[in-house]
Design a protein that fits this description.
It comes from Yoonia algicola. The chain has 226 residues and is α/β, with parallel strands linked by helices. The protein has one domain: Spore Coat Polysaccharide Biosynthesis Protein SpsA, Chain A (Alpha-Beta Complex), CATH 3.90.550.10. It is 34% helix and 25% strand. The protein contains seven helices and nine strands. Strands 3-2-1-4-8 form a five-stranded mixed β-sheet, sandwiched between helices. Strands 5-9-6-7 form a four-stranded mixed β-sheet. Strand 1, helix 1 and strand 2 form a beta-alpha-beta unit.
């Protein structure tokens, strides 16, 4: 099974080389890696491009992580796509394990894994908090499923894009399976988009909840009319 990797990146010059190296080191390497540089003001694009001939870099004005992810997926070559944040790491057999799980499932299945947190600047990859990873860095799916669910939408504040998109996928009947082993090392960087609680950044979660409620209301009305 061949696959592509889609990476949104914003000011990721400190981490993107290591992230891409973990992709290239997979026991089953990817056919192509698409990085969408989302308006970075550092050397993210140049560093990404220098990692391998299979890396394609697309630069755009800053539009948000969801939009950058969507654009990256649309530029990939394979029927199977893995999405990945530019500051995380994959363990070497991540894709081998997930591709086998995907092979045994149907095309209505998204495959995730568990992940372990580690602090930026630390080489301790073994003692951090572990949890099921239904995040961008864990996800492997068929490209047709992305096309069916539609673009990933960036909420106000920037957080909640994947929560919204995965919620929409569930409503369309997609099933989630989690490989029961740590496959992703999730980097904790103070000040990053996902770090800590922040009222301004967290506004997106309110929009996600409201959108889900409105979709449920619309479905209920349609069922009542039928």
């Amino acid at each position: 099974m061949t696959y592509s990797v889609a990476i949104p990146a914003f000011n990721a010059a400190e981490t993107i080389a290591e992230a891409i190296a973990s992709v290239l080191a997979q026991t089953i390497p990817p056919t192509d890696i698409v990085v969408v540089d989302d308006g970075s003001t550092d050397d993210t694009a140049a560093i990404a491009r220098a990692q391998s001939d299979i890396v394609k870099v697309i630069s755009q004005a800053n539009a948000g992580c969801g939009q950058a992810t969507s654009r990256a997926i649309k530029a990939t070559m394979c029927d199977i796509v893995a999405t990945f944040d530019a500051d995380d790491l994959w363990v070497p057999d991540k894709m081998e394990k997930q591709l086998e799980m995907l092979r045994q499932a149907n095309k209505q299945t998204f495959v995730f894994g568990r992940h372990r947190h580690f602090k930026h600047g630390s080489d301790d990859y073994t003692t951090g908090h572990e949890c099921d990873g239904k995040t961008r860095s864990d996800l492997v799916l068929y490209r047709a499923a992305f096309d069916h669910v539609g673009d990933i939408i960036d909420p106000p504040g920037g957080r909640g894009d994947m929560v919204d998109w995965l919620g929409r996928a569930r409503e369309l009947g997609y099933q989630f399976q989690v490989y029961d082993a740590v496959l992703v090392l999730r980097r904790i960087i103070p000040g990053s988009l996902s770090y800590g609680r922040n009222n301004e950044k967290d506004r997106g979660y309110l929009m996600v909840a409201h959108r889900a409620m409105m979709r449920r209301k619309a479905r209920a009305q349609m069922e009542g009319e039928s």
